[in-house]
Amino acid sequence: MSGFKRKVAILQSNYIPWRGYFDLIASVDEFIVYDDMQYTKNDWRNRNRIRTAHGTQWLSIPVRRNTLHQSIRDTHVMDLRWAPRHWRTLSQAYTRASCFQFGRDVLADLYVQAASLNYLSEINLLFLRSICAALGFSTRISCSSDYTYDLLADRTTRLVQLLQAVNGNYYLSGPAAQVYLNQQQMTTAGIEVQWMDYSGYKPYQQVHGEPFESAVSIVDLLFNMGPAATCYLSTSNSSRAEI
């Protein structure tokens, strides 16, 4: 395909996700938070991991699941006291990190704001947009619920309709979608598909030492590397270099 490429990525709403999620955002013109999709229990929607002196630890937002097919955007927070608890845990875990003040400047007020929010999706969106702004990303972030598309259609058709709604003709996808995405359908719709490669991220100095743990929340990178965090957000093998 030739001509102007409007690059778009679409992923489900996650709580303070890992650096690969932000690498994907930085690689596109528009990032759509797929908040109409079903909320999945014991997943990344309402929780993530941080590094502590005692190893990795989960930070989980307590949510209410009323029905099996409940969407992420309809998922309600059960206990608003989660926010000060999470910030207290983060402060204790990273107080000796080399860039603790940078992480504090980015995150402390977000937890104050989040304490008044009732829905998981709006909490995740608050953190996502604010962290992207702190990292200097210019990517437009929207939600699937902002657009009109057929929620009952198959997976690929839904993605095509969302991409068309934002004039996207280049879809950057996480590798897991290869098991279900119909690339021929995308091509027929005039959409080029590229797969994100999450291998090859550089390690960085973590406050709690060895062994290095890569699969943790972006907050670990913010507290440990501060303004230099963006240097560790892309890989030599990343699709960003191919776009």
Structure description:
This protein is α/β, with parallel strands linked by helices. The chain is built from 7 helices and 9 strands; from the N terminus they run E-H-E-E-E-E-E-H-H-H-E-H-E-H-E-H. The protein has one domain. It is 32% helix and 15% strand. The longest helix has 16 residues. The protein starts with 6 loop residues before the first strand and ends in an 18-residue tail after the last helix. The C terminus is likely disordered. This is WbqC family protein. It holds the Pfam family WbqC.
List keywords for this structure.
WbqC, 243 residues, two-stranded antiparallel ribbon, alpha/beta, 9 strands, 15% strand, 5-stranded parallel sheet, WbqC family protein
Briefly note the structural class of the backbone: alpha/beta
End-to-end distance = 12 Å
Main beta-sheet annotation? 5 strands, parallel
Mean pLDDT: 93
Number of strands: 9
Cross-sheet strand order for the largest sheet: 7-2-1-8-9
Tell me the count of domains. 1
Question: What is the share of helical residues?
Answer: 25-40%
- What fraction of the residues are assigned to beta strands by DSSP? 15-25%
Contiguous runs where pLDDT drops below 50 for at least 5 residues: 236-243
**Structure annotation, total helices:** 7
Rounded Rg: 18 Å
The sequence of SSEs as H and E is: EHEEEEEHHHEHEHEH
Shape: globular
InterPro entries: WbqC (IPR014985)
Protein name: WbqC family protein
Organism: Hymenobacter volaticus
Pfam families: WbqC
